[in-house]
Amino acid sequence: MLGAIAHLAFLGFYGAAVFAALSVLLAGGLGLLVLIVGAVLLLGFVYGLYGAAFVETARVEGLYGFGLPMLTPRRSPRRGFGGFLHTVWLQFIDGGMWRTIAHLAIATILGWIAWFLVGILVGGATGAFAPLYVDDGAVEIGRWFFDVTWAPVWGTLLALLALAALVGLALLHGVLSRVLIAPIREAQLTAQARDAATQRQGAIRAGELERTRIERDLHDGVQPRLVSVGMTLGMAQQKIDTDPESAKQLIAEAHTSTKAAITELRQLARGIHASVLDDRGLDAALSALAGRSHIPVHLDVRMDGRAGRDAEAAVYFAIAESLTNAAKHSRATTARVIVRSRPEEGVLWARVEDDGIGGARVVPGGGLDGISNRITALGGTARLDSPQGGPTSLEVSVPCAS
Q: Which parts of this chain are annotated as the region Disordered (predicted)?
């Protein structure tokens, strides 16, 4: 209780200073909007709001211990200057930030009231002992004057009323904090639950697509070849006594087909998970992938250590599928792969570009759909940009372990 009253007394000055500074930034930015300095002042206003909301959230959490997560700046998925402007706009319309600013404004007003009540409390306590230092006449208690004879009664009564009002203000501050700021945690928990459901659905969908792809590759590739090997060996068995030379040729043909089937099985297993990815890391795995590509690939990989098995596997799969699409469908002549580890953001980021004809779209059950579902299952994001006429680019960002 005393802590809440102390906070309110502090906010009477702090809040006034904060809103005065924000008002100056807003007025200056609007007044000088035609100049660059006006845009800078408005940018300062937006992030001043965020800074004030961040401090207010930390203050309420320190006072009440609601378990509030700290505010985090919202980021636009877009790139370049347009992405920067979109980020500023997202920050400006953040509902959690505005609720916290509203709480700060109300708490500042309560702080002014608290100072007024503290003055009455001190005046009442002093007036209760007025007969000890005043012989006759009126005594001022707060903004009122009382005869010295009744000063102890009125002083005590006003002091008690002021103390009760201060306690009421402290309780009101706690109620407002629960109403305005505590729902931020509930909203974030709801969003986390929604994201978890999306990730679960993405994982299920990715598993189904992977199973379908494996079945298709086995049915269309390895299975017919193995059937052909069996039939060839059967024919050789029938001719081995009557026509040994033809039988030898058939056995040689079956041997060649068997080696081709083994190669296809290795490629299929590599498509599920590249063993070199576990042994030597993403950089080496991508180098091997680029070496097998049907179009020239320029690699630019910069990583500080390993990023986690799941993250590296997802990024490898996305790059492999993108290069396959570029070679089969886009008529591309070159491709570029950029990979960066961003430990400050806790993500592994990659971008695949090709100079093809563009027009790529996410089709249910297709390769790009598989990329999207696998990335989503890990809580990451995937963004495709493929206008008609090209070029095509795919960006993925996956949370990593380092």
A: 382-402
324 vs 394: CA distance, rounded Å = 13
Question: Distance between CA atoms of 346 and 342, rounded to whole angstroms?
Answer: 6
Calpha distance 281→274 (Å, rounded): 10
Which structure tokens are listed for 326? Answer: 């570029």
Contact indicator for 342, 349 with CB cutoff of 8 Å: yes
Distances 400 to 17, 217, 286, 338, 393 between C-alpha atoms, Å: 42, 30, 18, 17, 22
Q: How far from chain centre, in Å, is Cα 311? A: 16
- 3-state class (DSSP) for residue 295: coil
In CATH terms, the superfamily for domain 281-399 is Histidine kinase-like ATPase, C-terminal domain (3.30.565.10)
Residue type for 128, please?
A: A
Q: Which amino acid is at 105?
A: A
* Residues 174-199 pLDDT 10s: 878 877 776 655 555 555 556 556 65
* Confidence class for position 208, pLDDT limits 50, 70, 90: low
